[in-house]
Amino acid sequence: MPKSYYQAKEILCSMGMEYKKIHACPNDCILYKHEFEEMHKCPRCGVSRYKVKDCDECSSDDNSKKGPPTKVVRYLLIVPRFKRLFANGDDTKDLTWHANGRNCDGMLCYPADSSQWKKIDHLYPDFRKEARNIRLGLSTDGMNPFGSLRT
Fold first, then answer.
1. What is the dihedral of CA 111, 86, 73, 36, to 10 degrees?
2. pLDDT of residue 23
3. Which of 14, 50, 76, 99 is a Cys-bridge partner for 67, taking CB atoms 3.0 to 4.6 Å apart?
4. 107 is in which domain, residue-wise?
5. Is the residue at 25 inside a domain?
């Protein structure tokens, strides 16, 4: 395990697993990308994009357009990760097992046996034809998006 954030970043970047930094509003109103990329204040709440310095000599205009951002979102690029999965032959076998090596005995043993998977196959037959297509699932087991003690 890396001992610092910097070491972890070096390991990921050397493996071709970069991420993009996107500045965000401190109140979670917007992400500063596309049409908001050049803005220095949030158009919804008016809060500065950058951390405010506490000094008497600094004017508020200079203060709001310089310095580190108050909040940064790190966006993990998913396509390079998928490419890395299929770069190894053993991993490719595992990723296509649901189409090529699975025992279809009528029992629900794998997500490919579920009614949702079959519905996607029925609705999108071209997607079903290619065994290398990846279906993503979202799991929120143990995640509380509203804080540690809120319901």
1. -110
2. 92
3. 50
4. 103-134
5. yes
Residue 72 in domain: yes
DSSP string, 62-82: HHHTSS-BSEEEEEE-HHHHH
**SS3 of residue 41 by DSSP:** strand
Helix (H, G, I), strand (E, B) or coil at 135: coil
Per-residue pLDDT tens over the stretch 36-75: 888 999 999 999 999 877 655 555 555 456 789 999 888 8
Output the CA angle 138-124-129, nearest 5 degrees.
Answer: 100
- Determine contact, residues 69/49, Cβ cutoff 8 Å: yes
Shared domain for 35 and 72, answered yes or no, is yes
Closest CA to 64 of 33, 44, 41: 41
Q: Which two tokens stand for residue 40?
A: 């220095």
Q: How many domains does the chain have?
A: 2
Residue 144: inside a domain, yes or no? no
For residue 110, give the amino acid letter: Y
